[in-house]
Amino acid sequence: MSHRFILYIKELTGKTHEVQMTYETSVEDVKFIMQDLEGYAPEDQRIIFAGKQLEEHRLLVDYSVSKNSTLHLVLRT
C-alpha cells in the first residue's frame, strides 16, 4: 500500500486546497484532482513547486514533494 500524505495546492487567488496524495501520484493526476475540485481543465493548469513548472508525466517524488509541501496552481488565460 502506498504511503499517503497531505499537501496543499494554492491558487493565485490565495485559495488553498488540502489534498491527500501518494509519492507515486503524477503531476497529471494532480491536475485531474483540481479539475474535480474546481472545474479547471487540465490543459489550462500549470503546477509550480520550488520555482519550477512540473511536467505532467513525472511523479511528485521526482520533484521531492513531501508531506505538507505547497504546490502552486497557475491557470493559463
TrEMBL record:
Gene3D superfamilies listed in its UniProt record: Phosphatidylinositol 3-kinase Catalytic Subunit, Chain A, domain 1 (3.10.20.90)
Residue span(s) of domain Ubiquitin-like: 5-77
InterPro entries referenced in this protein's UniProt entry, alphabetically: Ubiquitin-like_dom (IPR000626), Ubiquitin-like_domsf (IPR029071), Ubiquitin_dom (IPR019956), Ubiquitin_ubiquitin-like (IPR050158)
Pfam family of the protein (one): ubiquitin
Signal peptide: none
Stated name of the protein: Ubiquitin-like domain-containing protein
Organism: Euplotes crassus
Lineage: Eukaryota, Sar, Alveolata, Ciliophora, Intramacronucleata
